[in-house]
Every structure is written in structure tokens, then in C-alpha cells.
Amino acid sequence: MNRPLLASLLFATVPAFAGPYDQPYSIVTTDLAKSADPNLIPVIVNRVDGETIMTRTEAVILPGKHEVTVDVPPRQGFHQATQNVFALDTKPCVRYYVAAKLDNRLSQRWIPVIRSEEPIGECRKKFNIADTR
Q1: Cα three-residue angle 132-69-123, rounded to 5 degrees
Q2: How far apart are CA 101 and CA 6, in angstroms?
Q3: DSSP string of 65-93?
Q4: I want to staple 44 with a disulfide (CB 3.0 to 4.6 A). Which of 5, 12, 18, 71 is the partner?
Q5: Is the pTM of this model over 0.90?
Q6: Residue 3 neighbours by CB distance under 10 Å
Q7: 72 and 81 in contact (C-beta within 8 Å)?
Q8: How crowded is residue 99: how many other Cβ atoms within 10 Å of its Cβ?
Q9: β-bridge mates for residue 71, sequence order
Q10: What are the pLDDT digits (tens) for 1-35?
């Protein structure tokens, strides 16, 4: 194979190796902040769009519509984790803190909630994105 052809093939594949921080991104993360509400507990971020999250606490994703799977780990009195899937439309350069809202402390029924969101300063600066809050 000649060198110019080989070089052009290698450069054609470079975008496939782009990292998650090479373009505007969003982060979905576990909310670990204490809450006065005893029915609000942390979750494990398990998957986004069917892709397993290796850190179990946060996912770096492209902005847009996603299907997020979160788990509530087993807790006192319950022996199995429970899982929930929800739709989330993320904005560029925004971090979303996810928690679980229990029906009550004696039930395993719960819904995922976005407890808060915040701008990601370094992302907004790098990609020149204005705060739209």
C-alpha cells in the first residue's frame, strides 16, 4: 500500500477517536447531597441509551434526548436493587443531579428525579456557550 493512501486512511479515522470532551457535552450524575426529605435517596447511574456506565456515578454524554437507567441499591429491609428508566433531554454544558424519590420508606416503589442542574463552567468557556438560565 502506498504511503499517501495509508496516511489519508489514518486521518479519516481520527474523528472516531474523539473523546467526550472534544465537543459540547452534558453530565448525568448521582446526587450525593444530603436531603431533609427522608424519601429522597441516591441512585446509581447504570446506563444511558443502553450503554453501561463504568463509573456508576456519572455519565458524560452528548446533549439531546436520552434514555437513562438508574438503580436504587438494596437497602435495609430490602434484598434486591430496583431499577427505573426515564427520558432526559439534556442541554449542552449542563450537569444533571439525579436522585430517587421513594413513595415511602417502607416501599420499593420510586421515581427518578432531577434534583438539580448546574452549568459546567469549563465546558461553556471552551465552547463559548452562554448561560441560558
Answers
A1: 30
A2: 55
A3: EEEEEEEEPP-TT--S-EEEEEEEEEPTT
A4: 71
A5: no
A6: 7
A7: yes
A8: 24
A9: 44, 83
A10: 555 544 444 444 445 566 889 999 999 999 999 99
